[in-house]
Each structure stands twice: as structure tokens, then as C-alpha cells.
# Entry
Amino acid sequence: LAKTTQPISMDSYEGQEVNITCSHNNIATNDYITWYQQFPSQGPRFIIQGYKTKVTNEVASLFIPADRKSSTLSLPRVSLSDTAVYYCLVGDIVRGGSASKIIFGSGTRLSIRP
Amino acid sequence: ETGVTQTPRHLVMGMTNKKSLKCEQHLGHNAMYWYKQSAKKPLELMFVYNFKEQTENNSVPSRFSPECPNSSHLFLHLHTLQPEDSALYLCASSQDSQAYEQYFGPGTRLTVT
# Structure
């Protein structure tokens, strides 16, 4: 199982771009990288998923270098409502993979200030 | 609206009680999950059901008993729990059990006294 390492916490201000990096040195060939967001006392919410290079959606961008040993979640122009815990997950979603590979680590607690 | 609902939202029970948590998904998904989230701990996957069949049991104590009567409903039956079982219990669903895009419910905050 690919283990992930993220900063425990980060602080930023409204209107700034925030980049959260996740390390996954032993990522396997078939592994995808997925990010979730969780607000207090709520379930996590899927943000974005990628395999390599760059993925962008209406919420965030995901940058993955060629060696895929890390990934960076980029949140453009954050607001107070982006204060949450962000989880990086790495695993195999090719048919035949196991749901038990879905491991949420400790995540990164992002605090946005006015 | 996530499409996944859980009831009750809050539950306080004694150690000798029997209670059940209910989860319902309106997304047409085939896989459903139970997670436990204790204070300041990562989410722990407890059970996975795919097409109503249990495919994962991550060494969960027998005092937690899941039931999946159909692909839209998932229950977690609780009996003789311990205070350390107090946590947020989250239900999730996905297209199938290999899908990493899971949709989570709001959770049930359980307190065992």
C-alpha cells in the first residue's frame, strides 16, 4: 500500500492561492491520486483525482510530476469556507483492486484567515 | 445534497443497549461503506458491500454487525458497545467497490455512556 505524507496543518489568507503537497514515494504503476475535503462533523467530499501531469476542475487543480512520487493540490483564491481538512489518497482503481486500499491518513488541516 | 442520508444524526446509548444506524443512498450506486472516525484520528474503513455482498471486513469487533438488504440501504447494528466506540460513523457509496470517488453521508455522532 502506498503511504502518503502531508503537512499536518497550513494557514493562509482569503484570496490567496494555497498549495498542499503530498508525498507518496512508493506509488505503484496502477495507483491513482485522489484528494478529499472534510469539514467538521461532516463526511469527506471528493475534490479531484489524477494519474499524471495536471488535472483541473471547477474546484481545484492537481499537479503530478513525471516521477509521480508527490502531488500538489492547488486551491485558487481561497475563502474562509475552504477551511477544512484535506486528505490525499493513493491507490489502485483498476478493476480487481480492493476497497481496503482506500486509506485516509491524518490529512492537512487548512485554516483560512480574513 | 450529497445523495447519501444517515439516521439518526446523533445517538447516545448505554453499554447494554442495542441500536441501529441507517444509511440510504439515492445515487444508484452498487457499493456502500461504513467508516469510523474517532476524535483526532484518521477515518477507519470498517465494512464494504458490493452488490449487497460483504466484500471487506477490516477486523471489526463482532459488537458491530452490518446489514445490506439492497444496494440502496445499509445498516450498522450495535450491541454491548464500549465507551471507546464513541465516534462519528460515516456511510459512503460509490459506483462499485473499485471506485475512489465515494459519496459520504453526514454521519452519526455516537456517544456510548
Chain A is about 0% helix and 45% strand. Residues 32 and 93 of chain A are 7 Å apart (CA to CA). Strands of chain A lie at 9-13, 18-23, 31-38, 45-50, 53-56, 61-64, 70-75, 84-92, 108-113.
